[in-house]
Amino acid sequence: MPETITHRRVLHIAVPIVLSNATVPILGAVDTGVVGQIGLAAPIGAVGIGAVILSALYWIFGFLRMGTVGLTSQAAGRRDTPEVSALLTRALFVGAGAGALMVLAQVPLFWAAFRLSPASPEVESLARTYMGIRIWSAPAAISLYGITGWLIAQERTRSVLAIQLWMNGLNIGLDLLFVLGLDMGVSGVAIATFIAEWSGAALGLWLCRAAFSGPAWRDWLVVFDRVKLRRMAALNSDILIRSLLLEAVFVSFLFLGAGFGDITLAANQVLLQFLMITAYGLDGFAFAAEALVGQAMGAGNVARLRRGAVLASVWGGLSCLGLAIVFAVSGGAIIDLMTTNPEVRGAARVYLMYMVAAPVVGVAAWMLDGIFIGATRSRDMRNMMIVSFVIYAAVAAVLVPLLGNHGLWLALLVSFVARGVTLGLRYRALEGAAGAGH
Known about the structure:
Layout: H1 7-22, H2 24-36, H3 41-59, H4 63-77, H5 81-104, H6 106-116, H7 121-134, H8 138-153, H9 157-181, H10 185-207, H11 220-223, H12 226-258, H13 262-299, H14 302-338, H15 342-350, H16 352-374, H17 378-403, H18 405-425, H19 427-435
Helix pairs in contact: 1-9, 1-13, 2-3, 2-9, 3-7, 3-10, 4-5, 4-8, 4-12, 4-13, 5-8, 7-10, 8-10, 9-10, 12-17, 12-18, 13-14, 13-15, 13-16, 13-19, 14-16, 16-18, 17-18
């Protein structure tokens, strides 16, 4: 990896991630479209609810990607090649173990999921069929978090793009074969995803083959070093708590929005897709910050750390400004693409201004997340997220009764600002830790 951090290097890391993210909605649309050809509503609902439940369960282990990026990029910055290989082995053990637990606990997990999100008997039966097949690829799906993080840490985002393109392309092809060609219905969609996830994990391991060329990846004394395992556990625990609180913000936002009626709830759901677009667009630059900051942290080079953080944030800021302009100019047209209901369209336009503001007020939070992940300052991330959640809850408690859904949107934007400000206040300590060899 080069020593100099340039705009070109930032884009080299970021652009493949942006392209990779762009393929995700396409797969969801094909899954829905293929099942829709059956001509019944229940299979569409079953695939939709089954995919959401499994994604939520797998997402619990999203810390594996973030933790692996930080630790691996720092080991790479120290030029500690054996530890880089050992980290991949640790991540694979966590992914495989977590996936195996998911398979073993599938009955109570599915029961709890349908108690929280009840569906009609027909939809629930089909969804259980779908999930009962897909759950067997949980070890592969969760291990891919670790594989992806390991590759990003070494700036190998083209490999991440290759995995995503392969998985989604294969999934789409098998969807068409199993559902339209062989008339396998919901089971066909599930089998297609099962095969795609296992083959994606296999491709990921092949792309990581350099780690297996030496003995370090199976040096069990190093892999299971108690101190390193404790650090990994503490890091991942902090990130998990931070992520759960962040998820609690969005879940509470949806629940509170439901109190304003179906039209407002639907409008909020449409506008949240704008946030998803922003997150997908910004991920690449946040990932660039993770890799560059982590490597600089490992090398103890404060100047490189600052330059990596600044250049990635400049591009992230420009992207968010561009998205804000697009939302301001074309937001109405985007809303019309997402829904045909005139009442929902009208309500979404009333609150569109908050989505125009969101990329601008949220960019600091998103980029600082990447910077702190790379620096493995997970305790700061956890603590500042707790503070931000309390601020969000307080603002919502005051503004929602006064301003209704406007107050709810303002509370969400305030939570973005709070995350950015609180993490920003801890940035100097991050640089100090780098200079002191943390």
